[in-house]
Here is the input.
Amino acid sequence: MPRALSVEVLLRPAVELHSVTVCGLAAALCLVAPWSIALNPLIGIGAAVPFLMVGTVRLHQALTILRYRRNIRRLRRYVMASRSVPVSHERLFIGRGFRWESRHTQRLLQTYRPEFRRYVEPPRWFLWTRRLEARLEFAPAPFSALARLTSIDHALNPLRPLPPVGGLPRLHGIEPHEVDVSLPLRERVGHTLVLGTTRVGKTRLAELFLTQDIRRGEVCIVFDPKGDPDLLKRMYAEAKRAGREGEFYVFHLGWPEVSARYNAVGRFGRISEVATRISGQLSGEGDSAAFKEFAWRFVNIIARALVELGQRPDYLLIQRHVINIDALFIEYAHAYFAKTQPKAWESIVRIEGTLNEKTIPRHMQGREKRVVAIEQYLAQARLYDPVLDGLRSAVRYDRTYFDKIVASLLPLLEKLTTGKIAQLLAPNYSDLKDPRPIFDWMQVVRQRGVVYIGLDALSEPEVAAAVGNSMFSDLVSVLGHIFKFGIDDGLPVDAGHVKIPINVHADEFNELMGDEFIPMVNKGGGAGLQITAYAQTLSDIEARIGNRAKAGQVIGNFNNLIMFRVRETETAELLTRQLPPVDIFTTALASSVTDSSDPQGESAFTSNTQERIAATTVPLIEPGHIVALPKGQAFALLEGGQLWKIRMPLPQPDPDDWLPQSMRKLIEGMRERYADTEPWWEMHAPLEVEPMTEAAETTARGIAESGLR
Here is the structure.
């Protein structure tokens, strides 16, 4: 048979063991009793060597078959402690796996053939043991103990169950020779998209990436809408291990008492960015587009006035002046006239004294008399100031009409300024007694900081989306500044345009994504931004944006794709449609019998048996293969279309992952509030936690003293 048409068959009996047995017996006979085959001892030793060499080769071939058959049913456990994660300044470690080629498609399709079923499916004794365990679950003590004994997951237990990862082990077991799979760091600027349904390993992959990013000393920013306590614990442990706990910040909307503070609109390159970040959360569809534009204009007027007055904009100030813009108009007029026309107030007071219900214009009804007097004075004086003119145009609107056009803005501001959250988003910079630090993105980049953003989306999804979008918009502005001027702009020492990797890990990023996310993923690479986005399906992204074209625009900017198990066929096809078809060989057995027509001939019939080999074109992988992935395993499309099959290492507890008391209370509080299932890679008893009983100020000071910012 030509070599090009050879068909590899690894699902078969290990017939090589027969040769190994024969060679072993022959070698033993030559060494122990050479006289029995008419050999002297010296020649017996020489004759045993070839037998041993042939037996060794055949043993290696037999072990390959046995290992392949074992991996098809059960993979070896892959565990790695966090301290053992390889850290490189050239490559990003992902896990272990292999480059998927046409031969792997060939092997995978063979596992579905009926003749190989007994090598792929669990044996009968395995199924019988599992049924027995189910029946003995509530049996008396001696019998239930037997069920617990057979269910122990240990290598010495021949009846142990399969690991609780589901899926088909054959998807990874078809290649017995694994290698470390990694991604060149230069490819991360092209961004990475991680897709997978819930509880399949996305957060575990994020922990693996964060471990390496933190140890490399790079900027790490994590957006966690749900609030994963294990992720926060891992981040702090790695920062502590790398000596970077002084650069670690925790911002959590669910625990404002111990959270760092952040002003989403306090830093900007252009003053108009303040209005863009706030009004960007409003709906722009249909009739709402006009109200969104009005809201942008009024927020921009307020922000410009605050800056001119020397005040840093925040959500509380903007809400206060949206509700009552008269006060801001009067305050700015005081400051303006004090600089330009100190005697103007004499005329304003005189005009105010003449005002009554009849002399006040109809459109100014409901305004303070001082506001009406200032407006009438400006109409007479014909002064020009862009900020004052903007405020004047706002107060000249009918009060009822003004309330209507900003009605869509007030609910958003209420969400961002209600309760203790207002202390986080509108920090008091002059309160030196508050131990909670205040950070901004430029500060984080310059410090090479590690930031955990917990948005508490399970409790307040709309507030989480608003804060997340504001942070994204602020980050885009900072990236633009870094791209133009570098990170040391304005500092005494200028290091030039040094590009610092800024790693942004956005878990469930579809919940945070808006129009601000598109320019960040599209143009942020020039400033060193490296986004790793985690989501469940493509439909989540499209539903969040509300536009299929924009969703495609976002997806098109991710050059690397890692796909865990998904339940949506369209999501799986995002990977499979990018792969070329391949040719595989199939075998078919054909038999025929022909009766002889010659009654005088020597044979009554002739028979013919053939094994035919045919080439068939099939997809490299099917969407059904992605749906059947075990937990912790994924297909990865890396470096311009190279398909890899990978599996991540399971986490091994580290004895030195200790936490300060303040951080432990925060994590335990998250575990209490965010009830979740046990990790998919192990089953253990829940951790007994102590409720948070200390006062908020004491806890916050404890965090500051322990080095957590």
In short: The radius of gyration is 35 Å. The chain has 28 helices and 17 strands. The chain has a mean pLDDT of 85.
